[in-house]
């Protein structure tokens, strides 16, 4: 009997689950938020994921529920579980991807390295943190931020007054998060998959490059990831081993099922610090579609169905993924396929079926090969064709 996976959310992550579902013989159904979204190919309904009746009705048509994003409210998630629907990842895990303040508390509880942080509810508390941390810090909203939204670098205690006002007007209380401004060498991302029975598979740690708070480039594996670092137990280790150990401990500590991405800072003094969590396929893993034996999207489906996990081994020495951001307004990425494919025949082109507008993720390009300099140059040049 075929298994049916229901994906809440019709974005590009759901879209990229469709090809591996076909290969695995899995039926995939998508509840999209509006008609014509990226995953329309598999959409079987349009509805508000905040509405319990809508989500429960969709769940009756599938064997397991998973997600394109982490924004489904907790009361809806718990109602699904109470109705006997397998939900992966479950609400108790997703909570730490939905609320950064709870995430920080959990990361601290697990004994994992993190930037210095505090919960703050007024300007004076922000000012005290700034005074103790060199006059600059990062302020984040606890919920709702992504791709640089809900994040500010501040150097004045009144720089987040508008956010404090919103919290006060909300009537439910709450706090912002302030974190030290980390002097990092680079940003990394470590992905692992975990199935309900407990098996875990880790991908190579990758280096990510952000532009305007949005992931622009990913290099897999991260260069110099075998350099020396201090392990979680204080022993001699490597950056790659520390990143993997952090992600495994997070996955086990919060009970993640499916894909988990842990965004990390590598600091100038050799530390690896937890920045953010995502409990779904992640932009940092798009390289795996073409560059790994098992893509993160196939792996996610395997995990949520509790199937044996696939090999995470890279197919080439290097893979570089470049996000296509924007492009000529009114065009689609596929409009320029012929020119790019002719110029860069080794480039793998992925369209999200989105109309271009400034700064919007409309697709990505991946190039793999033996020499990093060549791979990086070709990937950047191919992506630039779509953006000009």
From TrEMBL:
ATP-grasp domain: residues covered: 104-305
One Gene Ontology cellular component: cytosol
Function: Catalyzes the ATP-dependent conversion of 5-aminoimidazole ribonucleotide (AIR) and HCO(3)- to N5-carboxyaminoimidazole ribonucleotide (N5-CAIR). Catalyzes the ATP-dependent conversion of 5-aminoimidazole ribonucleotide (AIR) and HCO(3)(-) to N5-carboxyaminoimidazole ribonucleotide (N5-CAIR).
Gene name tied to this protein: purK
Subunit (UniProt): Homodimer.
Assigned EC number: 6.3.4.18
Protein name per the record: N5-carboxyaminoimidazole ribonucleotide synthase
Binding site for ATP: 100, 140, 179-182, 187, 275-276
Listed GO MF terms: 5-(carboxyamino)imidazole ribonucleotide synthase activity; ATP binding; metal ion binding; phosphoribosylaminoimidazole carboxylase activity
Keywords per UniProt: ATP-binding, Ligase, Nucleotide-binding, Purine biosynthesis
């Amino acid at each position: 009997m075929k298994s049916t996976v229901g994906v809440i959310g019709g974005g590009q992550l759901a879209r990229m689950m469709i090809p591996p579902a076909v290969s695995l013989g899995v039926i995939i159904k998508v509840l999209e938020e509006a008609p014509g979204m990226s995953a329309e190919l598999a959409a079987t309904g349009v509805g508000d994921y905040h509405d319990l009746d809508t989500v429960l009705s969709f769940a009756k048509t599938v064997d397991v529920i998973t997600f394109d994003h982490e924004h489904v409210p907790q009361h809806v998630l718990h109602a699904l579980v109470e109705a006997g629907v397998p939900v992966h990842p479950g609400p108790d895990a997703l909570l730490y991807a939905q609320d950064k303040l709870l995430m920080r508390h959990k990361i601290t509880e697990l004994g994992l390295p993190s930037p210095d942080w505090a919960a703050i509810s007024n300007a004076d508390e922000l000012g005290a943190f700034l005074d103790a941390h060199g006059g600059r810090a990062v302020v984040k909203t606890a919920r709702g931020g992504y791709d640089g939204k809900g994040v500010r670098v501040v150097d004045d205690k009144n720089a987040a007054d508008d956010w404090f006002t919103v919290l006060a007007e909300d009537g439910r209380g709450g706090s912002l998060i302030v974190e030290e401004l980390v002097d990092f060498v680079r940003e990394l991302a470590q992905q692992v998959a975990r199935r309900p029975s407990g098996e875990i598979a880790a991908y190579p740690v990758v280096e990510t490059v952000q532009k305007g708070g949005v992931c622009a480039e990913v290099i897999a594996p991260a260069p110099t990831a075998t350099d020396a670092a201090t392990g979680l137990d204080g022993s001699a280790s490597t950056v790659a081993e520390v990143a993997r150990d952090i992600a495994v401990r997070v996955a086990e500590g919060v009970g993640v099922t499916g894909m988990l991405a842990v965004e990390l800072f590598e600091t100038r003094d050799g530390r690896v610090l937890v920045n953010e969590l995502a409990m779904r396929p992640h932009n940092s893993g798009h390289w795996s579609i073409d560059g790994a034996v098992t893509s993160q999207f196939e792996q996610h489906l395997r995990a949520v169905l509790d199937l044996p996990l696939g090999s995470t081994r890279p197919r080439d020495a290097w893979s570089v993924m470049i996000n296509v951001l924007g492009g000529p307004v009114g065009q689609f990425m596929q409009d320029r396929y012929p020119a790019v494919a002719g110029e860069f025949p080794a480039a793998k082109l992925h369209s999200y079926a989105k109309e271009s507008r400034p700064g919007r993720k409309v697709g990505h390009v991946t190039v793999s090969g033996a020499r990093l300099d060549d791979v990086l140059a070709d990937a950047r040049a191919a992506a630039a064709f779509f953006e000009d």
